[in-house]
Amino acid sequence: MKIRHSHIEFEGSIAEWQEVKHLFPSNAQSTAASDAEAVTAAIPAPAADEADAEPMILDQVSDPSKLTEDAVDAFFDRRPVPKEQTDIIMAVFDAGDEGITTQEVASKTGMPPDTVKAYMMLLGKRKSYTPEWPKDLPIFKQQFEWKEQQNRYWMHPEMRAVIADGRAMLY
After folding, report:
1. Residue 50: how many CB atoms within 10 A of its CB?
2. Which branch of life, at top level (predicted)?
3. Of 48, 55, 132, 159, which has the fewest CB atoms closer than 10 Å, so is most exposed?
4. Would you state the pLDDT for residue 148?
């Protein structure tokens, strides 16, 4: 996560922010109820073109090998992942090499398909706020299946490794 105050920029997890926040001028800190809210309030909104971006088909990605485990760690360390997004991430994780369709994620999580799509978009937005994540790389590998008229999702190996190692903040 990044926190900007005047010309000072801090990048790190909430725990790291708590350790160094006393070094920032007092007006850099917020009166928010928690450090997590203060950090969240300090993160700038993405550019309009990023906020309105549609999910990208894997074939449109220029170089998927750019993703690193450090970028995935940063994605999860920004702030806790909400339960609904965690459920979707774990559904894709559990699907393994077979992948999982939107409808299958909906069935597994108990959410309507449109809600799953909305949470997928929020995961994409979270990715947009993670500077280490390659800008042109979607949160999951995906392919549109014409027969089923829906996307099938697979997890990037780097994300799978971070989750399997227990480094992701998932509930």
Report:
1. 14
2. Bacteria
3. 48
4. 83
